[in-house]
Amino acid sequence: MSAVTRWAAFAAEDMAMAEAAQGLGLWNQVCLHAQQAAAKSLKAFLAERHRPIPVVHHLAELLALCAEADQDLSRFEDRCYTLDKYLIPLTYPDAVPTGQTDSLPTEKDASEALDIVKELRGALRIH
């Protein structure tokens, strides 16, 4: 199995988990898995172009590398920052400030996160 296929398959699994979590009303998990699906999709894009796959998790860094191959992708910069804000607090519960549960993702945030990753994956042609 090629690196492209592996990254794309893992990205697809994260998309499936995000969509399943949406059906269960687990907004944190929707946003976290959407961020992960985007990261793995960007890495699949890099692998497809025989570029090194960096060991980074922030979408903005990955997107910048992808934009070197396809400048049109830079239009996703703000949306990648939107998804990146979910990575640390939703991976590590102690990163959410005590008493700040109102800062956790809402249903609207979850829908936006899924929309972003779907549009990004379409632009990357990763399915």
Describe how the helices and strands are arranged:
Elements: H1 3-24, H2 27-48, H3 59-69, H4 77-84, H5 87-91, H6 107-124
Helix pairs in contact: 1-2, 1-6, 2-3, 2-6, 3-4
Q: What oligomeric state do these chains adopt?
A: single chain
Sequence stretches where pLDDT stays below 50 over 5 or more residues = none
Order of helices and strands: HHHHHH
Radius of gyration, whole Å? 14 Å
Number of helices: 6
The CATH topology is given as Four Helix Bundle (Hemerythrin (Met), subunit A)
How many strands? Answer: 0
- Percent strand equals under 5%
- Give the structural class: mainly alpha
Average per-residue pLDDT, rounded, comes to 90
CATH architecture: Up-down Bundle
Helix content: 55-70%
CATH homolog superfamily: Nucleotidyltransferases  domain 2
Can you tell me the overall shape?
A: globular
The total number of structural domains is 1
CATH class call: Mainly Alpha
The major pleated sheet works out as: none
Describe the model.
The chain has 127 residues and is mainly α. It starts with a helix and ends with a helix. The chain is globular, with a radius of gyration of 14 Å. Helix content is 68%, strand content 0%. It has helices at 3-24, 27-48, 59-69, 77-84, 87-91, 107-124. It has 6 helices and no strands. It has one domain (3-124): Four Helix Bundle (Hemerythrin (Met), subunit A) (Up-down Bundle), CATH 1.20.120.330.
